[in-house]
């Protein structure tokens, strides 16, 4: 029988984390017109740092800890899940040109006005690395969305599971306090992640509205994952270490393959590197202080 009170707590907790992702994605509306090349590199670097720190403190370390708690070798599920996550994103990277409509220059947009807008923003200029044009940037943005979405699924599961445990121990307020704290911590962490999604998507040529919506959609999986855990809590718990590590591997793949090369395409400026350092520092502080 469904415990309605616990179900509402799961919805509220994961709904808050989704809201914070959406608020972070709304940062894209703060920038009008084209973003300078230096600012774009800084944003990509910041996104890289955020993703790396989140992979370590929010995903891989919890995977190691939960593996030990479940009686498994602490290194095995994190290592194998990490590999699976990277392989999954590698395969998606290879499949993207056939799965997405803007995989060739002639299919960027049928509207002359939109094409002119992209040209005026410098979107169609060749990249200094690998002579890549917009399709590569667009594919990189899509891989980033996939990686962050994969990252949000176990986070939503973790919040949902925390409130399920609180519902199973109604006489112990510590469980509820822990669940609320976890939801608050993940929600605050999701704010920079939402921005880390919407800004690169905007720079790939999408409109501000589409970039914002993409950021929101990457976070909607958290309430869905929370509900899934509520309905199947006993079956999901043993899978959590694997899911956490899978998401970590997916995110590290995107950072190494797409974001950092675009943030630092040459040696003329180190603004991308500074962005990586700042993003990593911010996310590390949030993860440790709120974890």
Name its key features.
mainly alpha, 78% helix, 10 helices, 291 residues, globular, single chain
Structure description:
The chain has 291 residues and is an all-alpha fold. It is 78% helix and 0% strand. The chain has helices at residues 4-25, 37-69, 76-99, 112-120, 134-168, 173-203, 208-231, 233-236, 240-263, 271-290.
What series of H and E elements makes up the topology? Answer: HHHHHHHHHH
Based on helices, strands and strand pairing, what is the structural class?
mainly alpha
The percentage of residues in β strands lies in under 5%
The number of helices is: 10
> Roughly how much helix do the residues carry, as a percent range?
over 70%
Distance between the termini: 32 Å
Secondary structure: number of strands: 0
Mean pLDDT: 78
Radius of gyration using CA atoms only: 19 Å
What would you call the shape?
A: globular
Q: What characterizes the major β-sheet?
A: none
Query: Which consecutive residue ranges, at least 5 long each, have pLDDT under 50?
Result: 98-136
């Amino acid at each position: 029988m469904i415990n309605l009170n616990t179900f509402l707590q799961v919805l509220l907790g994961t709904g808050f984390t989704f809201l914070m992702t959406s608020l972070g994605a709304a940062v894209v509306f703060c920038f009008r017109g084209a973003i300078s090349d230096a600012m774009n590199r800084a944003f990509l670097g910041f996104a890289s740092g955020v993703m790396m720190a989140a992979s370590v403190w929010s995903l891989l370390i919890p995977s190691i800890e939960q593996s030990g708690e479940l009686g498994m070798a602490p290194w095995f599920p994190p290592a194998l899940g990490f590999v699976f996550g990277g392989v999954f994103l590698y395969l998606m990277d290879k499949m993207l040109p056939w799965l997405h409509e803007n995989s060739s220059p002639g299919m960027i947009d049928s509207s002359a006005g939109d094409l002119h807008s992209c040209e005026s923003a410098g979107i169609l200029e060749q990249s200094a690395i690998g002579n890549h044009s917009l399709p590569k940037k667009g594919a990189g943005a899509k891989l980033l969305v996939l990686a962050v979405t994969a990252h949000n699924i176990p986070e939503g599961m973790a919040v949902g599971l925390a409130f399920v445990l609180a519902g199973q121990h109604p006489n112990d307020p510590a469980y509820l306090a822990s669940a609320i704290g976890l939801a608050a911590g993940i929600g605050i962490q999701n704010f920079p992640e939402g921005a880390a999604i919407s800004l690169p998507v905007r720079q790939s040529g999408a409109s501000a509205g589409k970039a914002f919506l993409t950021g929101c959609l990457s976070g909607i999986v958290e309430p869905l994952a929370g509900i899934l855990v509520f309905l199947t809590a006993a079956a999901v718990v043993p899978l959590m270490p694997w899911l956490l590590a899978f998401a970590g591997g997916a995110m590290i793949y995107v950072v190494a393959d797409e974001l950092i090369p675009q943030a630092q395409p040459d040696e003329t400026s180190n603004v991308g590197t500074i962005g990586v350092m700042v993003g990593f520092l911010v996310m590390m502080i949030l993860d440790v202080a709120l974890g």
